[in-house]
Each structure stands twice: as C-alpha cells, then as structure tokens.
Amino acid sequence: MKTGKVSESILKRSILKEVKTLRPEVIVGAAVGEDCAMMELKEDEIFVMSTDPITGTTKDIGALSINVTLNDLASAGAEPVGVLLSCLLPEYIEEKDIKEIMHQVSRECARHNVQVVGGHTEITKAVRQPIITVTGLGKVKKGKEIRTGGAKAGDDIVISKWIGLEGTSIIAKEKEEELIKHFSADFIERAKAFDGMLSVVEDAMVAVEHGVHAMHDVTEGGIFGSLWEMGESSKVGLEIDLRAIPVRQETVEICNYFDINPYGLISSGSMLIAAEDGAGLVRKLKEKGINAVVVGRATEGNDRVLLNKGERRFLTPPESDELYKVVG
Predict the structure, then answer these.
(1) What is the CB-side half-sphere exposure of residue 108 using CA atoms within 13 A?
(2) For 244, 283, 315, 324, which has the most beta carbons within 10 A of its beta carbon?
C-alpha cells in the first residue's frame, strides 16, 4: 500500500464498517474527518484512561490490543466504555489484513459492550510489522476507584486464572513450526487457545463486588514483576508461596523448552488482587467459573519474599519480559 493515511474508501469499507458497538455516553464517535471523540459522564463518575501498544507479536493483534487495554481499566475498578486505536502499518500489508484486524477489534469490543470512538490508521515506512496502540476510556463511581497501590498489611494476595497465559499463547503461535517437532498438535492447539482467556474484566467485576483494596493485571514482567509493583506501590511487604502460584502445564513445558522463566512471562488473563477476605473472593470467582488461588499475604515493612519448601528468596524489581528471549 501507499505510504500515508489509508484512503477514505478503505477507511469506510474495512475499518469504520466494523465499528458497530454503540454506547449512550458517546456523543461523537469514529467518523471520517472527526479529530476528537466526545463522551458525557455523570457528575459522580470518574473518567478513567489507559493506553498500551502491542509490539511483541503480530498474531491476533486486534483482539490482543483490546483485551490488554480493557484489563487495565478493569484493574482500576472501572467499566470500560470506549477505545481509540492508533494503527501504524507496514507497506506490505493488504486490505484484507486491515479488515481482519478490525474484525478482531470489533468482536472483542462487542463482547465487552465497548465502542471504538476514534483513531488513526497509517501506512508508514517507519515500522516493519503492524503496531497498534489502544487508549481505553472507562468510568467508575467516585469513591469506588481501585489502585495498584492500595494493598494493606494483613491482606490476602489472590491470583485469578493462571500466570503466563498470554506469553504461552503468543509463543505457541509464533513458534508453532518449531514446537510441532517436539510436542503434539493437540498440546500446541491448547496452548494457542489460551488467547481465549486473556480478559480479566469479569474477574475484576467479581472482585469489586466482593470488596478489594488493590488490583493489578499481570502483564509485562510476569507475576514476579506485578508482585513487586503492587508491593512497591502499596509500601508493603509480601510473603508469597511460590508453589501456590497457578500455572498451566502447557506453560511450564513450553518455558522449559525455551529455557525461560514462566514467572517472568507476560500474563494478561491473570489478575493480582489484595483483599481482606481472600478465601471468600476465591469462592466467588470459582462460582463464576474463574480459577483463583490465595498465594500469600501482604506484610508490614518492605521485604517481598518468595517461599519455596522452606527456602526464602527476595523479589527484585522487574526486568525485561521473558517473551522477548523467544520472539524478540
């Protein structure tokens, strides 16, 4: 395609045509020539915003980009309302590829009742692969907002679903030809299908209803990085049972094959939660069909400790995600 903004015909035919979800808060949404989206909120509501790029993979980036951003909003206790997309695309891309990306975006937005309210799509020599940045827009009642830094000493630390879901799915898709020589086709398909569990919007809804002090979606840097960030933001210590951290066997085996640490692997689909009654929260999540486990507690002081069969080691600040050792 030619460098520059996509043509108006492509914009209408393969991008705006896929934008179907409608929200009453949206006054001005995505349209040809509109530079800004406009939304109307109530006086007692807080406007919540988050933005994230997808750079680590080209597989299913439309769906992935939406889930990652909505998860950020959910971790703040916010109801996702709209998203803005910035799509930078290489010259080799074809219109059918753009349409597929937008189809994924539209599908995930419809699933969560979220509207695409605007964006920008451009063909540029500056990128070698499609890069999507999504800005999410959400709302939460005043006084109900939740922060990563809200954990209190004595809180139970809960993890929903399993760590490493996102990274496992990405590696299984990007390295399928290599993996098929060492694992069964069924094993690889199961790992790839982890992308169906990447949303934590429902996890967060259950947690907010139950009552929590802090939430943090487990993304780049994996669970070790997210634990450190929650402890650092909250100014609390942590005691975490390493063996209690939930991880799927597919994740373990793929990480072993590539000699990477599953606890440092990007983990959208898993929510880290600090709550006074962790056991009660786990029960409520499981009633909704969401796996969850109490893995430890927040403590006084600054020591963030991993316990493993009587051994103690300290968490350290997040480093580069393990994913980039495989697909970087």
Answers:
(1) 29
(2) 315
SS3 of residue 298 by DSSP? strand
End-to-end Cα separation, the chain, in angstroms: 26
- Most distant CA pair in the chain, distance: 64
Place of tokens 């990085």: 225
CA–CA separation, 41 and 24 (whole Å): 10
pTM, 2 dp: 0.86
Q: Is 141 helix (H, G, I), strand (E, B) or coil?
A: strand
Tokens 């605007």, located at residue:
118
Residues 109-152: tens digit of each pLDDT? 999 999 998 999 999 999 999 999 999 999 998 888 898 999 99
* % residues pLDDT > 70 (the chain): 94
The enclosing H or E element of 247 equals none
Q: So what's the pLDDT on residue 43?
A: 83
d(CA 212, CA 275): 4
Residue with tokens 């590696």: 171
At 5 the three-state DSSP class reads: strand
Strand partners, 83: 116, 136
Identity at 110, one-letter amino acid code: A
Burial (CB < 10 A; 0-12, 13-18, 19+), residue 300, is exposed
Nearest in space to 10 (alpha carbons), one of 102, 84, 83: 102
Distances (CA, A) of 67 to 122, 142, 211: 22, 24, 23
DSSP code, position 3: S
Structure tokens belonging to residue 115: 């509207």
